Amino acid sequence: MDYLLDNNGNVFLYNKKNILGIIKLLYIKPSLKEWEKNIKDLSFLFYNNDILIDLVKERGISILHEYFSHIAQEGYLYHIDKNNEYFIDSRLNTIFCYIKQLIDKNLLWNPTVIEFIEYHEQLLDILIYMHDNKILIINNSQNIIKSYSLWIYNKINTIIIVNEKKIFGNLDYNNEYIKFQFDLLVGENYIYYE
User: What pLDDT does residue 38 have?
Assistant: First the structure.
């Protein structure tokens, strides 16, 4: 695989037959010169602990797709030992472990594409009304929305009452908002906070 760089920060990946992909370098910590030394390290510019924690801090969304087991990844994302046994590259394994930690801490959600689309479609049927220290959320979808997240600026108590049930919140990574997570029932959901 070869590559070309243009002046706008685009990387064109290609083989002898066709262009394999175009990547816009918008958010890369190492310098481009550092990256140019080893084209195989491209994924590790996008998959690393610094990028992941920045994603969490910025409350961002990232859709990454990689064919980890593709034959072109041999010797890079996976290796084959002399007994013909396959194993994941240690750098990639470290990143997978860190992603698991972020998921376990409820800082990162790692859905399939269809899970993301279905969740997003349910959110389109929600109405939110605020008055004083009360919030009314109306779920007009046909389903309970599991693990609905409500973020409130960190000027309130870390407990809210949702449909007469206490819900405890957690500060976000920046200690800026309190994140409450609960199942949003179909119809009206009354939330009170102090």
Answer: 54
Rounded to whole angstroms, the Cα distance separating 143 from 160 reads: 23
The residue segments making up the domain with residue 63 are 47-110
Quote the pTM value: 0.61
SS3 56: helix
Contacts with 3 (C-beta within 8 Å, 6 or more apart), sequence order: 11, 12, 13, 14, 39
Question: What is the C-alpha separation between 33 and 37, in angstroms, rounded?
Answer: 7
How is residue 131 written in tokens? 């008055």
Residue type for position 168: F
- Amino acid (1-letter code) at residue 90: S
* Whether residue 125 is found in the same domain as residue 106: no
pLDDT at residue 40, rounded to an integer: 56
d(CA 189, CA 194): 17
Q: In the listed set 110, 137, 153, which residue is the last one of a domain according to the structure? A: 110
